[in-house]
Design brief:
By secondary structure, the chain is mainly beta. Helices cover 0% and strands 29% of the residues. The chain has no helices and twelve strands. The chain has strands spanning 6-9, 14-21, 39-48, 53-57, 74-78, 83-87, 125-128, 197-200, 203-206, 212-213, 216-225, 230-238. The strands form three sheets. The chain has a five-stranded antiparallel sheet with strand order 1-4-5-6-10, with no helix packed on it. It has a four-stranded antiparallel sheet with strand order 11-3-2-12, with no helix packed on it. A hairpin with a 2-residue loop joins strand 8 and strand 9. The radius of gyration is 17 Å and the shape is elongated. It starts with 5 loop residues before the first strand and ends with a strand.
Length: 241
């Protein structure tokens, strides 16, 4: 294991089904707190050779202390960080009165939602109709790009930069796997491309992280997993059989 990223040696050459679930975003704190979005689910079949090394990061969910932090994405990549399958994490739920929104679910598209990233980049923070874009929320990290930092909140780190969840000053931390931190406003989910945080006419929503699936017979589902992410790898056919 390398700072929470597991290294898995393929035991035998064969066909493997890989299933991945992203983590959910945290629910906003307080009696009016809104739920975070649930993590995405990805399933695909891969031909893998004995001795191949895969990196596995299982996304985590965190508890909110104000608005919810984003859930971490779950990543399975080659040893050189080429994605095989990624399941996006959900955005955090809102906590402020009059601005309470559920977090977006982990997405089945490669892009993060709500001003999210694309092509593996991190999400951004955007305030429509204002010259000042930054506010108290962190965007989600992607495969290769960190999420944008907000005021007193950090965006989630990319997978290639370790996948740490964004921190927050006395607020909700983002989950391991690139989840953005939340404070007055919720943090976005990590994933193949990070979710963003978008404010429009006083309404703020934390986006879900994008997903990726290069396997055969792909199955993709949005907003499935509550809590921490998960990975299951099943050998379905080997050269030894």
């Amino acid at each position: 294991m390398d700072n929470g990223i597991q290294i898995w040696h393929v035991p035998v050459t064969g066909s493997y089904v890989i299933e991945a679930w992203g983590a959910s975003g945290a629910q906003g704190d307080g009696p009016g707190g809104r739920p975070g979005g649930k993590g995405a689910y990805m399933k695909g079949t891969f031909s893998l050779n004995s001795g191949t090394l895969l990196k596995i990061l299982v996304g985590q969910a965190c508890r909110a202390l104000a608005a919810g932090g984003g859930g971490g994405g779950t990543f399975i990549t080659s040893s050189s960080n080429t994605a095989l399958i990624v399941a996006g994490g959900g955005g955090g739920g809102g906590a402020m009165t009059g601005n309470n929104h559920d977090g977006d679910p982990g997405q089945i598209t490669e892009e993060g939602s709500q001003s999210g990233g694309s092509n593996g980049t991190g999400g951004t923070i955007r305030r429509i109709g204002s010259s000042s874009d930054s506010f108290e929320a962190g965007a989600g990290g992607g495969l290769i790009g960190d999420g944008e930092n907000g005021i007193i909140t950090e965006g989630g780190k990319s997978f290639v930069n370790g996948g740490k969840g964004g921190n927050s000053n006395n607020g909700g931390k983002g989950g391991f796997g690139g989840g953005g931190g939340g404070f007055h406003f919720p943090g976005a989910g990590g994933g193949y491309s990070g979710g963003g945080v978008l404010e429009n006419q006083g309404q703020t929503i934390a986006g879900g992280g994008g997903s990726f699936n290069s396997g055969g017979n792909p199955i993709k589902k949005e907003g499935v997993k509550e809590g921490d992410g998960k990975v299951i790898i099943t050998l379905v056919d080997s050269e030894l059989q």
